[in-house]
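Milestone 3.1: sequence recovery, worked example.
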């Protein structure tokens, strides 16, 4: 049994209470690890350590090239341990190995991207009235609380840890209580490469206690959070005490719009990928498929034909295309939404059940599920299900497609399929969403900003935008002719 400890001030420690939490493999319900279950007191210790480490300046004042060296070393070690880490991610989260292998490679690339950014120019100068010279420099925000969900445990961690450290902050990182395993492996690497003690701290425990303390503490300067919109709202409130900086990457109910003139098979393929990749547990999932009326029936027929052939199974089986959902609790939530969809009068044309045969009976497997004939007010159209459940909507023309697409509280992502380039751009420009694709769905790049409009969040992760979120901007004005201002006569 793997024992998972917290990493605070360069030491591996149990919770003060000695409490632990069982970590379960969602493919078979077996306990694979026991994780330290920290509480508010543990969080306070970790925050204090990060505060002292930041205030000492050891990390923030270190030459950027040296900080970058640590991050490049982390990337190398992630690659050296890629097989082990991807296997553990599959055991912990359930997602197929081919996805976790990709996640580990992407995590290493993200560290390299931000290692490079640490040494790049980041200031500006301004032509103001003589004899003044004005400039801005970027400085680290300070102590950053980083809180992530369970859908991409390693990758979400790295999207925050890499830019935060590159910019010179110290961190207290909290993984989801459901999926802490690969975070522990990452912190083993952080220790191995020799990042100074106290700079990077790992705390485990429940969001309502440990996570909330990160959001509330006056010793934390910034919280960067990815997860549900309801939790984001609670973090925003908790952060008011010291007017903490916050970045929130929240949920979505993203539209994938297919016009009749789209390349048919490409659009079908991406519609499947958009909702069923990672078992639908993706904030940007194309969970609403908007189809133009003239291709509606033919498209659905082909979609259902292909969705029903998706190979669902344990993530460690190389032939598996879709794994289990992350936990029993989450599976029950998704199954409940499927019941809601039926009760609301949507027509179920594919899946809809837990899979309990062929050796999958102890895992949390749900069939790829498709509802058609939905109406805009239905809960399965409005609410984030975060599972392999697609709601199909029908539209007649461009104006209706845009109106339906924007008709939720979310604004994270969206896709448009058409062979008419001008139409694609017209529609994309009207989408109230932060991440969009034309004739594609899902590709994500370390170089490009990630985040949403409306209730899908505040701020951006990744790219230069993601780096800037972990910096403060300081204005410096220099008088080049030193002498009195002469404002007062006496
Ligand atoms: P949560 O938003 O509840 O959890 C995300 C992270 O926040 C976890 O580390 C969690 O800790 C922590 N957390 C929970 N409550 C608080 C709090 N009050 N203060 C500070 N931190 C807190 O998401 P879940 O994982 O429970 O999933 C719920 C829903 O959120 C999903 O069904 C989905 O709709 C959405 N979601 C969106 C994601 C996205 O990328 N946009 C990703 C994951 C979920 P703990 O694990 O202990 O609860």
């Amino acid at each position: 049994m793997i024992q998972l400890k917290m990493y605070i001030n360069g030491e591996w420690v149990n919770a003060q209470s000695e409490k632990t939490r069982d970590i379960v493999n969602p493919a078979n319900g077996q306990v694979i690890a026991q994780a330290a279950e920290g509480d508010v007191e543990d969080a306070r210790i970790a925050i204090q350590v990060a505060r002292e480490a930041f205030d000492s300046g050891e990390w923030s004042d270190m030459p950027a090239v040296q900080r970058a060296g640590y991050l490049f070393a982390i990337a190398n070690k992630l690659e050296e341990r890629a097989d082990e880490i991807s296997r553990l991610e599959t055991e912990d989260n359930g997602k197929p190995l081919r996805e976790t292998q990709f996640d580990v490679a992407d995590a290493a690339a993200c560290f390299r991207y931000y290692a490079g950014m640490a040494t790049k120019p980041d200031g500006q100068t301004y032509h103001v009235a003589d004899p003044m010279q004005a400039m801005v420099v970027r400085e680290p925000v300070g102590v950053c609380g980083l809180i992530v969900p369970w859908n991409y445990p390693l990758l979400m961690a790295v999207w925050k840890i890499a830019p935060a450290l590159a910019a010179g902050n110290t961190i207290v990182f909290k993984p989801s209580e459901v999926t802490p395993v690969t975070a522990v492996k990452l912190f083993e690497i952080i220790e191995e490469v020799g990042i100074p003690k106290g700079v990077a701290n790992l705390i485990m425990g429940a969001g309502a206690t440990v996570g909330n303390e990160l959001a509330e503490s006056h010793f934390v300067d910034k919280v960067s959070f990815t997860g549900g919109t309801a939790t984001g709202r609670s973090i925003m409130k908790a952060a008011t005490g010291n007017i903490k900086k916050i970045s929130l990457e929240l949920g979505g109910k993203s539209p994938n719009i297919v016009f009749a003139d789209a390349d048919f098979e490409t659009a079908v393929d991406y519609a499947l990928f958009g909702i069923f990749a990672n078992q639908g547990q993706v904030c940007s999932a194309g969970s609403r498929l908007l189809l133009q009326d003239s291709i509606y029936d033919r498209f659905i027929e082909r979609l259902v034909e292909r969705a029903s052939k998706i190979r669902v199974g344990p993530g460690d089986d190389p032939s598996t295309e879709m794994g289990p959902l992350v936990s029993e609790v989450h599976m029950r939530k998704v199954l409940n939404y499927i019941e809601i969809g039926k009760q609301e009068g949507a027509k179920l044309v594919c899946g809809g059940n837990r899979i309990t045969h062929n050796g999958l009976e102890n895992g949390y497997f749900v069939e790829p599920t498709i509802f058609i004939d939905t109406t805009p007010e239905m809960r399965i159209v409005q609410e984030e299900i975060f599972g392999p459940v697609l709601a199909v909507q029908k539209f007649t023309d461009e104006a209706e497609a845009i109106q339906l697409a924007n008709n939720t509280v979310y604004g994270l992502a969206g896709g448009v399929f058409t062979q008419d380039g001008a139409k694609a751009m017209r529609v994309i420009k009207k989408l109230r969403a932060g991440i969009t694709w034309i004739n594609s769905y899902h590709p994500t790049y370390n170089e490009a900003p990630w985040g949403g409009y409306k209730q899908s969040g505040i701020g951006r992760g990744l790219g230069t935008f993601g780096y800037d979120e972990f910096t403060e901007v300081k204005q410096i004005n220099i008088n080049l002719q030193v002498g009195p201002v002469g404002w007062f006569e006496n």
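DSSP finds 15 helices and 23 strands in the chain. Residues 147-151, 174, 176-178, 206-208, 211-212, 215, 226-228, 231, 234-235, 249-251, 283, 384, 386 surround NDP (CB under 6 Å).
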